[in-house]
Specification:
Immunoglobulin-like; four-stranded antiparallel beta sheet; Lipocalin; six-stranded antiparallel beta sheet
Length: 442
């Protein structure tokens, strides 16, 4: 079964949220769902942890809808596979604290290691670290106020040491048995705050992050590395994926996973809007999925979407060799009102869509043509598995008006001489590429 966590918001009542969980069968068909909140407080799911074979832990934050995020706390709930909340513990925060999220990990001894991302009134972000036993009783806790911090990707690496990533400061950090920081190391290769981690062993792991390639800070791409030690960065593997003229970032919650480490899936967002609320911005985006081997060499890349604003939140590898991709699709051209949907894609080991696809517009692409509509030029990106291609452009009457061989991953084709109108493009190659669609010149 597939379980998806999110929230719903009343469009007429800002900041009035209800936590949402729905259950799908292996083919993506809807089975059941639940909404819940804490005594009519706005409630959002922050993290979703597989606790054992038939139970999950939901970590949620709550606050009064009119309190601007204050007057709240967090919930630790146990949910069975039938979506029954069998146990919930409530933890209140001081009224001066605004809890922005709670994230956690289950260690081999069954304990929970949690980090609360908080904003103190009139202050910057701080973190509150907690260790809980199997009954959700607090064993240890510490408020970190020395510097701005927000911890995710938590892990208990021994009986006395805890590991995490400080996503605000882009560092690996280690805490002792009293949750006091004892070591730190900056993540190499200029990674920033959107970071995913997949542990390979007790000491090594893979990292996918928002990689800043240029000193100016304007170039965002998907960077991925293999770290061979929890804190020592003297040796690592590194690679990256990018488009030259867009902002490309990893999935917001988790973008890297595998069942077989020689087939690593990585996911992100191509063409992210740099605005306060990128989820609801009228800009075309794509899901992008990569597959690499264990040495981070790219095998293939594929794109999904391109007709609306797609924001990827999570990627999970599946036992059949494929993966699940979850996120949102904001259709800003929907008539009469814009519409946001939760979207889940099931992909096979080659990145092809499987199951019942109710949204044919999310079909897989191995090349993208943008901007669309455009004006004086076509930008064309070929997937890494297609080093060359033939571009053909037809007018509305089906006449071939442009034919050009492409020998680069990224190409810019000047079309300022063409009249305004709708054109049909076709991209083909002996490697199996066949993409076609409409392109509009404004």
């Amino acid at each position: 079964m597939i379980y998806v966590g999110g929230y719903t918001e009343q469009t007429s009542q800002s900041n009035d949220y209800q936590a949402l969980v729905f259950k799908l069968d292996p083919n993506g068909m809807f089975i059941d769902s639940i909404h819940y909140n804490f005594y009519n407080n706005s409630t959002l799911i922050s993290d979703f942890i597989e606790y054992n074979y038939n139970q999950f832990i939901l970590l949620s934050t709550f606050h009064e809808p009119t309190a601007n995020g204050n007057n709240g706390g967090f919930l630790v709930s146990l949910m069975d596979t039938n979506l029954n909340l069998t146990e919930t513990k409530v933890f209140y925060a001081d009224t001066n604290y605004r809890i922005l999220g709670v994230y956690g990990d289950k260690s081999s001894d069954g304990h929970l290691f949690l980090s609360l991302a908080m904003n103190l009134t009139g202050a910057i972000f701080h973190s509150y670290l907690i260790e809980m036993d199997e009954s959700f009783n607090i064993l240890k806790q510490r408020l970190l106020t020395d510097n701005a911090s927000a911890y995710q990707k938590l892990r208990k690496i021994s009986d006395t040491l805890y590991w995490s990533i400080n996503v605000l400061n882009n560092k690996y950090e280690i805490f002792d048995s009293e949750l006091i920081k004892v070591n730190e190391q900056r993540i190499p290769e200029r990674f920033t705050s959107i970071i995913s981690v997949k542990w390979d062993s007790d000491s090594s792991f893979y990292v996918l992050g928002d990689h800043i390639e240029s000193e100016s800070g304007h170039s965002h791409n998907l960077g991925f590395l293999k770290q061979f030690h929890p804190i020592d960065t003297s040796g690592y593997l590194f690679n990256h994926w990018r488009l030259s003229d867009t902002v490309d970032v990893p999935a917001f919650f988790n973008g890297i996973d595998y069942k077989n480490k020689d087939s690593i899936f990585m996911g992100g967002i191509r063409n992210l809007p740099i605005v306060v609320d990128p989820y609801h911005f009228p800009q075309t985006t794509w899901f992008v999925i990569l597959q690499t081997d264990s040495l981070l060499n790219m095998r293939w890349e594929r794109f999904y979407g391109g007709d609306a604003n797609y924001m990827m939140t999570n990627l999970i590898a599946t036992r059949d060799g494929g993966c699940l991709v979850a996120g949102t699709r904001y259709d800003y051209m929907n008539n009469p009102e814009p519409q946001t949907d939760i979207i889940v894609l099931k992909l096979n080991s080659e990145g092809l869509l499987v199951g019942n696809n109710e949204l044919p517009e999310t079909r897989m692409h191995e090349a993208i043509v943008y901007p669309n509509p455009g004006t004086d030029a076509l930008q064309i990106r070929l997937a890494v598995q297609h080093p060359t291609a033939l571009l053909e452009l037809f007018d509305a009457n089906g006449r071939l008006i442009l034919s050009q061989q492409l020998h680069q991953m990224e190409s810019r084709i000047a079309v300022e001489h063409l009249p305004k109108g709708t054109y049909i493009y076709r991209l083909s190659a002996d490697t199996g590429l066949l993409e076609n669609g409409k392109w509009v010149k404004m």
